[in-house]
Amino acid sequence: MTANAWLKRDIVGGALLVLLGGAVFHQSQSYGIGTLGQMGAGFFPAVLGVLLAIAGVLIAATSKDAAVLVKPSPAAWRGASLVLLSVLAFVAAAAHVGLLPATFLSVVIAGFADRRNSLRGVLTMAAVLTVFCYVVFIWGLHLQLPALIWEW
Amino acid sequence: MHQTIVDLLYGFGVALQPTHLMWAVVGVLLGNLIGVLPGMGPITAISILLPLTYFMASVPAIIMLAGIFYGSQYGGAIGAILLNLPSHPPHAVTCIDGYPLTRAGKGGVALGVAMLSSFFAASIGILVMIFMSPLLVKVAFKFGPTEIAAIMVLGLIAGSTMSRGSPLKGIATTLFGLLCGTVGTDLITGTFRFTFGSPSLYDGVELGAICMGIFAIADFVMHDNREKIVTTRAKVRARDMRPSLADLRKAVAPTLRGTLIGVLFGGMPGTGPTITTFIAYAFERKIAKDPSRFGKGAIEGVASPEAASHSKTQVDFIPTMTLGIPGDAVMALIMGALILKGIQPGPLLIIDHRDIFWGLIASFWIGNVILMILNVPLIGVWVKMLQVPYRILYPAAVFFVCVGVYSVRNDLFDVASVALFGVMGALFMALDFPVAPIVLGFVLGPMLESNVRRALLLSHGDLGVFVTRPISATVLGLAALILGWQTGSFLLWGSNSLFMRLRARMQYRITNGQG
Fold it and tell me: Of A90, B85, B366, B483, whose CB has the highest number of CB atoms within 10 Å?
């Protein structure tokens, strides 16, 4: 446990909130704070930034939670990155090669996030969903994405 | 009174049109389908299916949303009773007696009783809604921006501090949600805020992108590779669902009591349906002649909490629809969906859009009827659905999320932002922050900001206006009291509310009672 223990959860969370709050406060000032009676666009976000930072300090300072961030297992890292990669692959493929390849690619990548899925199972799933996607989203609902293109 | 009945009949006329009825059936089916899947509650069901409604006119869209909502709610009860899986927190209590009933071979009866009692409770909740809403609207017209802002603050504080875990963390995620709501063009000055030069952000962050990021994708990120193999030996057929006369008789009084508890707690911001179900269960156990039966398959322990959760949810729609102030994340999501369809819930809705308001109320009831009719023959299908392994489910879900978010605004940027919100949601979960308040903050944020700005503009910058006007002072005082009590008791005793302690004590007793 101690070997892969990083830091106390609440300290990390509090620190992140303080950082976020500070950044928001800083950025808000460029939008114009204004006065209470005539608020600028930056007033509300600036207040939120300050409150976020205060919440962060209070969370870190009053924490009784001894739990630490546990380093995820390699399988969990791999799964998490593949799920996110799957979404991003969908975006990239949909923009450049069309909806059908994007569907196939995103299902294959997401499928591999779970170690128990076999290559054959993943490919079957992707093929089925690609056909489904064609029938429902392109043929049925006329989604505005082209089915197949080649555009770089 | 007379006018209300005329309006209601008009609403039924709208909701009963064949095409509308068809969309209600589709909504109930899809909602039920997603709701029975492990880990998917109404929030996930609505956010995944929300994009489908963009292809529709506003009345059928809302009718379908109501169907999805009821379907997914009932779907959760199926998992709780048959598999001991509380995929949606309000059904956690239902597991306590529902699952033992399944093991005793009476799972079908438990499902039937759950269905009848929730139908009854929802009907009563709808009646309360029909007669209370016009009254509240009359009051709402007297509210200025000061009062509205104060009620929103109360809603946000109650919603964020009374949930599970640290109230400070709930407040932090609420603030984060409010912040997400400020992204885009400031309506008063025209300044672009936090858009980072991207035109896709000028209209703000997409509600669907936030919801699917923090609920769906974040969940997949955290939980793929999870080893949960779901099996049940329960074989439930349609005819098993008919409870015997003796079972029914046992369930009548608990259903009535549960409904009443739900109505009493309805509209009280921050007391979620989960807490209400625990109170209903505790009450039922307290007044039972033989409390030892509870936890071993008492039908009362299914009927009462299910009734409480449904009447409570129904009554919760009153502040959402009449004031435009949702009490929890599910209500916020439904309200966000209405706004996207060009309908702004609030006092004007009932007057300007009678067809929509009364059509919605009628479709609530019709949705419940359809749910009952469909579930009897389909129960076997749902049981099979429950056993689909997660590892097959989530890749398809990732794809549906992508297509769904894209279709909202036809913008791939929104899909990419889902990945970003997925990372943020996963980070919040890893750090033990509740994510549901983000949605509440996001939906209420722009309204809160504009009301605060207007209130202070009218008072020439005098903050005192919030405490000198009696309604606003009372509401804010209540908010301060909740905030102080919740944080104080959390820091002193480690558990943040009376309800939570009650719940902890009950869980202790139940587990010990079962030995």
Answer: A90
ipTM, 2 dp: 0.91
Please answer yes or no on whether A80 and B175 come within 8 Å at the CB atom.
no
Long-range pairs of B246-253 with CB within 8 A, sequence gap ≥ 24:
B247/B109, B247/B113, B247/B299, B248/B113, B248/B116, B250/B299, B250/B300, B251/B113, B251/B116, B251/B117, B251/B299, B251/B300, B251/B302, B251/B303, B253/B300
State mean pLDDT over B53-79. 84
For residue A13, which residues of chain B lie inside 8 Å, CB to CB? 169, 172, 431-433
Tens of pLDDT, residues B117-175: 999 999 999 999 888 888 888 888 888 889 889 988 988 888 787 666 788 999 999 99
Interface with B, mutate which of A11, A20, A87 (most B CBs under 10 A): A87
Distance CA A13, CA B236 (A): 46
Report the number of distinct structural domains present in chain B: 1
Residue B155 CA to residue A22 CA, distance in Å, equals 26
- pLDDT per position as a tens digit, B379-420: 777 777 766 777 777 888 888 888 888 877 888 999 999 999
User: For all residues of chain A together, what is the average pLDDT?
Assistant: 87
Please name the residues in contact with B38: beta carbons below 8 A apart, sequence gap of 6 or more: B79, B85, B87, B228, B230, B386, B390
* The pair of three-digit structure tokens given for residue B195, joined into one six-digit string: 């858009």
Burial of A36 (0-12, 13-18, 19+ CB in 10 A): middle
Sign of the CA dihedral B244, B250, B255, B256?
Answer: positive
For B264, the domain range is 2-514
- Give the distance from residue A134's alpha carbon to the nearest chain B alpha carbon, in angstroms: 12
The continuous run of DSSP H or E covering A13 comes out as: helix A9-29
The DSSP annotation for B481-511 comes to HHHHHHHHHHHHHSS--HHHHHHHHHHHHHH
Quote the tokens at residue B322.
Answer: 């009449």
Convert B412-449 to b/e letters by CB count within 10 Å (16 or more is b).
bbbbbbbbbbbbbbbbbbbbebbbbbbbbbbbbbbbbb
Residues of chain A in contact with residue B403, where contact means CB-CB under 8 angstroms, are: 99, 103, 133, 137, 143
Please count the CA atoms within 13 angstroms of the CA of A126 that sit on its side-chain side. 23
Q: What is the C-alpha separation between B16 and B4, in angstroms, rounded?
A: 18
**Residue B482, both tokens:** 């909740």
Average pLDDT over residues A60-89: 84
- Strand partners of residue B184: B193
B451/B462 Cα distance (integer angstroms): 14
At residue A104, the pLDDT reads: 94
Nearest by Cα to B382 from B168, B23, B179, B80: B80
* Residue with token string 């009825």: B21
For residue B277, CA distances in Å to B280, B281, B287, B305, B480 come to 5, 6, 16, 4, 26
Smallest CA-to-CA distance from B269 within B336, B312, B321, B328 is with: B328
Mean pLDDT of A35-40: 87
Q: Which two tokens stand for residue B221?
A: 């990120």
Of B215, B149, B132, residue with least CA distance to B421:
B215
Residue B265's closest CA among B257, B255, B275, B251?
B275
For residues A95 and B299, what is the distance between their CA atoms, to the nearest angstrom?
Answer: 55
Q: Residue B12 is inside which H or E element, if any?
A: helix B2-15
| Interchain CB contact of B460 with A (< 8 Å) | yes
Q: How far is CA B235 from the centre of its chain?
A: 30
CA angle at A100 for the pair A94 and A104, rounded to the nearest 5°: 95
Count Cβ–Cβ pairs < 8 Å, chain A vs chain B: 190
List b or e across B225-237, with b for residues whose CB sees 16 or more CB atoms inside 10 angstroms.
beeeeeebebebe
